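Hey, I'm writing a tutorial for new members on how sequence and structure tokens pair up, and I'd like a real worked example in the thread rather than a made-up one. If someone can provide the structure for the chain below, I'll link this post from the tutorial.
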Amino acid sequence: MRDRSLPASPNWYCSRCSDVNSKGLLGVGAKNVIYLIDVTASSCRVTGELVGHRDLVSGFSFCQHAGQSHICVSSSNDGSIRFWDSDSRALIKEHAAHQSPVSAVHWSPVDKNLVVSGDEKGVVVVHWFHTGDSASFFPEPRTIFCLTCSPHTWSSVAVGYKDGMIVLMDLSKKGEVTHRLRGHDNEIHSLAWSPSAGEDSLQSRPEDSEATNGVSTGEEKGCYLASGSKDQTVRIWSTAKGKGLMTLKMPYLNRRGSAVDPGVKERIWLNVHWPKGRPTQLVSSCFSGELVMWDLTKAGKQRWSLFGSSSEGQNHNRIVFNLSSVHLQDGGELLISTSMDREVKCWDLNSLGCCWTLPTLGGVIYALTFSPVASGCLALGVGDNMIRVWNTLTTQNQYDIRSFWQGIKSKVTALAWHPKREGSLSFGTDDGKVGIYDVFSNKPPQISNSYHKKTVYTLAWGPPVPPVSFGAAGKPSFSLYSCAGEGVILQHDPSKLTGEASDINKLIRDTNSIKHKLSPHTDLSWKPDGKVVAIGNEDGCIDVYQAPNLKLLCSIQQHHKIINTLRWHHDHSSPPELHCLLASGSSNAIVYVHDLHTIIENPPESPVVLTEPYRRLCGHTAKITGMAWSPHHSARLVTASYDGTAQVWDVLEEAALSNYRGHAGYLLCADWSPVDPDVIWTGGKDFTVQEWKVSKQEFTKPPKGKKMSMLQEKKKTGSKQKTKNKAASGTGGAAVPKMNAEKAATEQELSEDEGDEVGSTHSLEPPAATFEKGRSSSAAKSKDKPDLNLLKKKKPRSMLPLSTSMDHRPKEELLQDCVTLASVKHCNEPPAGCVPGQGDHIHLGLFADRQALYRMFEAEEEAHVEAGHYDSVVYLRLWSGDLDGALQLATERGELNDHLLSIAPMAGFRVWSQTVEAFVKQLCQQEQYLKAASHLLSINKVYEAVDLLRSHKLFREAIALVKARLPADESLLKELYTSWAAVLEKDGHLSAAAKCYLAAGSSFDAAKVITRKNDVASLRTAASLARLSGEEALAQSLALRCAKDLAAAQDWVGAQEVLSSQDSLLVHRLHLCVAELLAAMLEDSELISPASCVSSHQWASPGKCPTSIQDRATEIWEEEFGVSRSSEGHRSIAALLQELKSVESPAPTASVPLRQVLLYSSVHLTRAVLSWLLNDDGQLMKELWQAVALPRDAGHFSVSAQLCRLLFPDGDVSVCSRKHPRRLHHTEDEAKAAASSLQAFVHYHRLYECWWRASSGSLEVQNGLVLSASDSCPEDEVNDKATSRGTSDESRRFDKLDSEVSPLLSEPHAAFQATQRSVRDIQERLAAMVLQHSRAQAGQHSSGDERDASSPSDSRSSADAALRSEEQETPLSLSAKMSKYQEELSDLPDTMKMFPHPDVVECCLVLLHLSKSPCSVSDSLQQEARDLLRKYGTSPSVLKACERLLT
């Protein structure tokens, strides 16, 4: 049981590492322990710990539900989640659902069984306490910094991330993310939900009125959420809307509330806490440890209030990490805060004042001592580079502690109060510094100019000795002595610390005439009366010297291990015979007490050696690290040990009185209370100082654990003697270094970063380990059991275990071995049955001749084989010279290594070569292929090495090897390149594969593999590669593909550049020139929407375009490409035309984009221009007809009309150029038919232009003309074509309308078109009959189905007419009609089918409408149109449209 204690400092940089339950029990995570502290408004008290985590505690939370408030949960960097019972301090269960360090955990305030945790990888795990089930979610691939469960809805969880993102999750929907809150741009340190449900508590604020508008009362009720971030802002969020409401910027304040420079970059951890019952008040931390209370209903400086502003020094002076609050039974409310300043503070939320402060410790407690002058003043030397001085007797503040850090800058490892001067405290540090503090002043310490080379372990005040004592008049009566890790004791003059300290070894040698080297000193203790000093040494010897000349009185040779601590019995209120008792502790766990009364009172002339103690105190199971005599009792001693306990002894009775086991780790120091005989203070590795009462301890003796059992076993087997022999032989005569409490820290704790708990991950098991003081080269390893960390270093196995074990027999047998060996060496006949190296005398083989040694080796080999230690057998064979046997065994066992391979050449080339091959196989099994190939090269097996690399797909290394070691024309190289290329191509590394093909001489394959990406850059590169490699055909094909892609993307300049690299692609350049001109002219006429042109040529600008596209094309060809009528060779017109005829121009459909249709049309247009230059009028006319027909067939009527205007601005197709006017003459029927058709379409377009310009009655036609798709004439297109005429030239007049329209009223073409319509009508009727018949058989007769059987584009009237016709016609009669019409079509000339005219019936309808407009149409022409309509306009839709026109 303990009274007061100082716990370890709470862990830093954790979002929720402390929490308090409704009963006022505070849990704080420190290192890998959770400390439990009872808190009230006036005081606090550490009641216990929760021990079990293997790594830092990263989160802690209590269950806040009635009846279960004693249950808590913690998380750790070891990835575990542990549930605890805080009443019994017992672990309930452990979950290991996380694979990464857990960064946050929270127990739901709504559901008493729900716990949510998150780790650094972004995984959120939901734990159910009552069932033990868990579920994992992964809302974001980000590092989680904090999370919190909603106090109103069990399924709502807010998660804060390192990058500033906040995510709201709904656990009831399998972790679905409901909102992502973006606003912070740095780490989210803390999240807090509003204690009131709904979002109406802050709506009264004017600045929020806009944010709340539009939210009806019927919407889902949300809750406010506060977040604190490293970006120095606190934000309030609406979780219903998923957006921020307000931003609170941290005020720049220091501890006194005055402003500081906002430009200075401050370290900050911004924690927020929303107290229960305060929906408009929010608590947050600030820059330098201040706490701020925010009133969210106010603005400006009135918005916040500073905690602790009523008096000086109430605030923290470093950043605050955690905040938690608790309601008291008296109605008060407390706020608990933890900070980087290593203090836990309690605040009254009503007055904002500090109630109490609990200091904590951030390092190992190395020294602990009470002042002999200032009663109850306890000094602590701590590993966090600070000294604490605690007034333990104050009644107002039970934790009245001051901290001292100036001038220290290292771990404080030793302390000693001045025996007479109040407040004078000497200290020693890990870096060898010695200084003196005046703890009752604010002055910095005095630092000695003499530094130790290693850690200071002991300080002691004593009478001065020479040379300091020379001229003692006016000098201080005490000197300060320091003992450090290098084994030297220095005497410092406290009045002149700037002077050089003296080494007392010189005085000891001179006074005692010692010539040999003194053993390194490890501890010293002056007798309180100053007459003698006891000095402990590294070899376990204790020397007692008489002051002032340090004459050696006696040497105590009781201990056999390093001396850790020495203490003289006090000389007040005790019998005089006890004043000369000296207690000593070492690393062998036994405390010896010697009575030196006789020697001190009657000093001998020569030093005395003592080998028997006055009292022996046995019970500890590990080394002794500290001790203290009770100032209230006679011969009562307390000892601190590495076994984790403190033991109180009655020395005279050698009895154990009380054993304290409250620490979680080994103890380093202990001292007796100067005012209470029943109270002892102890400190140790667990970062705590604890006050406990002797009379209230449950145990009286230290625990007998594994360490004690091992110690007793050693005694039984004589292993103690063995370790002594080992130490003596292993160190070469050097002394064994000291292992005491403070010393233990220098290599273990001193190497750890105890200043930051984040870096501390100490185990809580009390280690039995020893730690060696840092010494010079004379230092040797301790004989104690090593530390747990050192146990990981496996002790090397003995090569000669049998003979070694024979040397560990009883002493009598070892002595007999000496006699036997002497007989073997010096007698002619060895003793009977004695064969050195065999049987019971195997160990003598090492001391006899070589044959005996070989016999010993054979026996050792057999033992190693039985134990499976074949590597030892190999080395034994090597030592005996059997190199072949060693290599063979290693080969069989697969245990060849580089060392064996390096000595294999000693056995000859054959053995070496076989060994290399065997090692290669072994390396391949271990997947070390590169190393295996390198070893093959050592025996000149290059091809085998290449095959090995290739077989394991290490092509890069194989190729490098071939190129470096084999001839340049090696065929294997091409195979490697080809194989590697195939692998790279399969994996998608096309560029690398191309390089391989190029290296292998396969340029064609290289170009093809690059084209697989099928982008412009790849095609351009592949074309260049093929051209450079001589693959002309492939280069042309790829360049053409690339140019087409560039043209489709409107990169005309890039397309020309690609083609310009090859002269053979000249005709394609001409084609793209025409295509660019055509696109520019159509864009200028606004018929096609302007595209985002990547690049274009100056000559294609619309301002430079003449009336005729043909003229402009010929000009550009001659200027830019050197192509004209007079060109010869590959530039000749005939050659270019012949080449362009091989380019396919597929018939486009409605799904083909317009720009692609124009590209196809420009091919025919280019052929037409070449034919014109070649004076081939027939080919010219056919190509022009194709150029115009392509956009028309693809449904682009307006583009086709505009193209006609661009080609024939005068409307005469017999004149192809204004610049070079000549009439075209056609001799072929096809050319004549093409010219007739083209002229008809030109007149057709001009007819529509006239109608649109001159008549507003087009609406009548538009509304009255409804044609079905079964009619061949495109009457249903009239509206589209009419509306498309908006681009016609209004200035143009049709003076000779009759002459232009007359060719359109061609009766042969009208008959041909009527026959085609009849054929299509019969085909549709036959299809309808078949469909109706199939439906009738399936029983699906319905009026709707019958209507569906007709074409979707038919009107209702046409469908009814078709049904009436079907009733009269049969399939047989319809087939007969079909045959008749097909015969009529076959009799017509093919040119009529190849080059059709516009629909004659449609032209008649338009003409009759024009007759009612101002345009003049002759009566004869009108009559001709009426006659044609009556004769060929037989479809129902046409009949209905012309009813008014024929009357």
